[in-house]
Write a structure and sequence with these properties.
Number of helices of chain A: 9
GO molecular function (chains A, B): 2-hydroxychromene-2-carboxylate isomerase activity; glutathione peroxidase activity; glutathione transferase activity
Strand order of the largest sheet of chain A: 2-1-3-4
Largest sheet of chain A: 4 strands, mixed
Distance between the termini of chain A: 25 Å
Family (chains A, B): Belongs to the GST superfamily. NadH family.
Largest interface: A-B, 30 and 30 residues
Organism (chains A, B): Limibacillus halophilus
Oligomer: homodimer
Number of domains of chain A: 1
CATH superfamily of chain A: Glutaredoxin
Order of helices and strands of chain A: EHEHHHHHHHEEH
CATH topology of chain A: Glutaredoxin
Catalytic activity (chains A, B): 2-hydroxychromene-2-carboxylate = (3E)-4-(2-hydroxyphenyl)-2-oxobut-3-enoate
Shape of chain A: globular
Number of strands of chain A: 4
Helix content of chain A: 55-70%
EC number (chains A, B): 5.99.1.4
Chain lengths: ~200, ~200
C-alpha cells in the first residue's frame, strides 16, 4: 500500500501540447526534489475539448498570439530549446497507444519513449502524428517497432487508451499539462511552483 | 517623460472576474514592493470573448469545476475572503463607465471605487451589475451618485469606455486579470510571481 506522502504525482499531458512538452522536460526532476515519483499519463485532449468546447490554443485569436509569446518566454526561462512543429496541432492517438502498450510491461520505458516523442516533435520539429511516424521514432529509439505496429492495431490497446481518457475526464482533467498531487488538481506548467509549495506546506 | 524603469504596471480586469478580484486585492502592494505604481484598467471581457469565442469560465463543463476549486484555494492562500455572488456572471458595463468617469478627474478615487465595487460583489455577494446598483454603491462609498448617474448616460463616457476596450484588445489583452509590464504581457493572477521575477531579472 502506498501512503499519501509517497504517492506519485500524476502527470497528464497530450503529445501535441507544447506546454505539456515543457512540463515533461522538468517534472521528474522537480518531483524528485520533493521526494516524489511521477506517473506519466498521456491522454487525448481533443476528447475533453469536445466537452469543454475549447479550440486548439494556438489557433485562437489574440489568446493564441499570447500563448506563442508565453511559450517562447517559458522555454527561455527553463532554457529548454523549443519549436512549434510545421504541422500543428497534430493527432496524438498513435503516440498514446504506443505509450500504453509499453506501459503495460515497463512504465520506465514508456516514460522514456514519451519524452523521446515529445522531443522529436517540439525539439526536432518532426512529425509524430501518424502511426508510421511513431513506429519510425520507436525504431530510432531502439524499440521493437514490429511488435509496436501490431500493438497499435490491437483492440485491447485501443480500449485501454479509451479507458485512460475516460478516467482522466472523470478525474476532472481538462488541460495539458495537468497534475494530480494526492488528488489535488493543478492545471498548467506554470503551477509547478504552487505544487512545490503545496507539498512543502502540506496544503492550505 | 516616464522611464521604462518607473512605468506603472497596467492592470487589466473585468469587474465580473473573480480572479480579477483576487488580483485587485494584492496588486498594489505587490507592485509597491517592486517600486512600481499600478494603472487600473477595467475593460469588458465579454467584448474580447466574442473574438476568442470563449465562454464564461465558471459555466464551462469540467474546467468550471476546477476554476471554482482553484479560486477557493487561491483565496485561502492569500487569506482573502471570497464568495461567488448569487447572480454570476454579471454585466460590468455600468461599473466600467463609473470607473472611467471618476478616472478622468481622479485616478486614485477611481481605483478606490473599483476595489469597493469588487469587494461589494465578491466579498459581500451584492449586485453591481445594474446602473442603479453601481449608484447605490457610489452613495455608500460617499461619492456623488447624482453626478455619476448623469455620467453613466453621457455619450462621451460611453465612447471613452469603448475606446479603452478597443485599446485593450489592440494590446492583446484577452483575460482577467492581465498585466502589462513595460509592454510585456502576463495573463492570470497566478503570474504575479513571474512578474516579480521578470522585474528583478530585467526580463529573460
Amino acid at each position: 500500500m502506498t501512503s499519501a506522502a509517497s504517492s506519485p504525482i500524476e502527470f497528464y499531458f497530450d503529445f501535441s501540447s507544447p506546454y505539456g512538452y515543457l512540463a515533461a522536460r522538468i517534472i521528474d526532476a522537480e518531483a524528485a526534489e520533493l521526494g516524489r515519483k511521477v506517473t506519466w499519463r498521456p491522454f487525448l485532449l481533443g476528447a475533453v475539448m469536445k466537452q469543454t468546447k475549447a479550440e486548439p490554443l494556438l489557433t485562437i485569436p489574440i489568446k493564441g498570439d499570447y500563448a506563442r509569446h508565453d511559450l517562447a518566454r517559458a522555454a527561455r526561462y527553463y532554457d529548454i530549446p523549443f519549436v512549434v512543429p510545421p504541422q500543428f496541432p497534430f493527432a496524438s492517438i498513435a503516440a498514446c497507444r504506443a505509450f500504453y502498450w509499453l506501459n503495460g510491461t515497463d512504465p520506465a520505458k514508456a516514460r522514456d519513449f514519451a519524452l523521446f516523442l515529445y522531443e522529436r516533435a517540439f525539439l526536432a520539429g518532426k512529425d509524430i502524428s501518424k502511426p508510421d511516424s511513431v513506429l519510425e521514432a520507436a525504431s530510432d529509439a531502439g524499440l521493437d517497432a514490429a511488435a509496436m505496429a501490431l500493438a497499435l492495431q490491437d483492440p485491447a490497446i485501443k480500449e485501454l487508451l479509451k479507458a485512460e481518457v475516460d478516467k482522466a475526464i472523470k478525474k476532472g482533467v481538462f488541460g495539458s499539462p495537468f497534475f494530480l498531487v494526492d488528488g489535488e488538481p493543478f492545471w498548467g506548467h506554470d503551477r509547478i511552483a504552487e505544487v512545490r509549495e503545496w507539498l512543502r506546506k502540506g496544503g492550505w
